[in-house]
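Why do we care about 3D structure at all? Because function follows from shape, and shape follows, mostly, from sequence. That is the central idea of this module. The next example makes it concrete: a single protein chain, its amino acid sequence, and then its structure expressed as tokens.
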Amino acid sequence: MTYIDTAAAPAANFLAFPGFGPSDFDVFGIPGLEPRMEALIAGIRPKLELLGERLSPELAALSGTEFFPHVAKHARRTVNPPKDTWVAFAANKRGYKAHPHFQIGLWGTHAFIQFAVIYEAPGKADFAARAIARLEEIRSLVPSGAGYRWSGDHMQPGAELHDSMSGEQLHGLFERLRSVKSAELLCGIHLDRNDPLLQNGEAFVAKAESIFQTLMPLYQLAAQ
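And the structure:
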């Protein structure tokens, strides 16, 4: 299957996004912290920085709030090489972990574009309570047949397809977020490393914009 780039060209003040290729995903198979980090910094990080520049204004337009990109630095690692990397978008210039945010990143197997509330967010229990009260609305805002997935742990690559989850399962995910200190919640899509869309940079940017638009009501519920 071949994707035809129907996305609009980037604005004149932005560089075109080159997409992700096999070499980007192969970085996570490089043994050793230093060699992997060198390859990540040289190859993947500039692309994440570019996505940060390209998509922060789009999120600001969708939300009415200024967004700031935060590219993972993996600075605390001393032995184990990173298994994934990302750029996070939050309405806070200093950091993203304590705030609801969006993420774009890579594991060795796939790319992800998602909304996230992770364990460091102090308002996650209140968000979970609001979400439980509006669970059917949330279920309906996530489109069926579009590959959206839910996860309760950003440290794990796997996630459950929205279409395969019952209302009880989704309720359980939010209930855990409400009651368990270490719990997290993520919703978005995964793109297999061999998906042709990944190598079509502008189509990938357009896909990310579409996902952010779809999930913005979830972000706004979390940001109250």
